[in-house]
Specification:
Length: about 70
């Protein structure tokens, strides 16, 4: 049985940070692909504090899993 990797409390925030990462990649002019999105998410995760770090960690897992 597959479990949902997004805790319901984080779902909206996870989608938000993924969307922001996509927007930043597009704005930068870099190719929009899995690696460029993950790179920005990882960078943001390293700079985040408190519960926000977990939101980025979940977003990274989601992008990694769904784009394989």
């Amino acid at each position: 049985m597959q479990t949902n990797i997004i805790h319901s409390d984080y779902e909206e925030d996870v989608h938000k940070v993924i969307g922001q990462a996509v927007s930043r990649v597009v704005a930068s002019g870099k190719p929009l692909n899995k690696e460029s999105i993950l790179s920005l998410l990882r960078e943001s995760e390293q700079q985040s504090v408190d519960g926000t770090r977990e939101v980025y960690a979940v977003a990274i897992r989601k992008v990694s899993k769904e784009m394989d």
